[in-house]
Amino acid sequence: MARYYDEVGVRIIEFTEPDKRNPVGTNEFQVFEEALNTAVDNKEINAVLIRSEGPTFCAGNRKSEFVTDWPQAMHGHAFRFFKALHECELPIVAAVQGGAVGGGATMLLHCDMVIMSEKAYLQYPFIQLGVVPEGASTRLLLEKLGLQRAMDILLMGRRVGADEAVSLGLASQVVDQDELENAVKQRLDILTQNPREAMIQTKNLVKQSLNNGIAPLMEQEIQLIGHLIEKQQADDGSNAFETTFGNKS
After folding, report:
1. Residue 43 forms part of a structural domain
2. What residues are paired with 6 via a beta bridge?
3. C-alpha to C-alpha distances, 44 to 8, 11, 41, 47, nearest whole angstrom
4. Which of 53, 75, 104, 212 gives a 20 to 30 Å CA spacing to 84?
């Protein structure tokens, strides 16, 4: 489950299912979409914070929903979730205290600042699950890392530790676990004092070159994921999400 609420100058979106390692699925897609799409209309909000309860940031897509909710419509909940992340005009800060896997990792590619604890890691195990990456991550990782490093991460499905994530440009800062909250607060304190319109226009300028082609790529990913899941089910009556890398939900 997820929820959102506002504190002084900040819209906070939280994963609230730590016993299941904070999966992302239909509920979370809807909460994020609403929270992000309405934040910019609230003139009191200068920034968005994404965080989660418990030791895991987000273990990826809700396993049970790959059986019940896929394939999805091209412009279904998953697509609108990533589209809202990509198009949000306000600065997005993520506080990552633990594992960010699958969708938990791809969503971070759309954040403007990612602060990780030394215990956190990223992992993109899509190929091991028999599907393709989501959230335009193939393009975003290529642009950030270059071909060989992007393919190493995607083909191997390996964990990328916090220090490596910072060195690769996938995160902004790594801090001790007990310093994470303070490090995030320091950044939010500045963002809430910054002139709002200047931040919005700066983010729009910075992301201009990224905008072309992102939505069509996301649509293609959703179609391919649905096709590959259907193929797995047709081949053996199940799919890899039932046994591999899955969260507990």
Report:
1. yes
2. 11
3. 8, 9, 9, 10
4. 53
pLDDT interval class at 167 (50, 70, 90): very high
Residue 19 lies in a domain: yes
pTM: 0.92
247 domain residue, yes or no: no
Quote the number of domains for the chain. 1
CATH number at residue 15: 3.90.226.10
Average pLDDT of the chain, as a whole number:
91
Structural domain that includes position 136 = 2-242
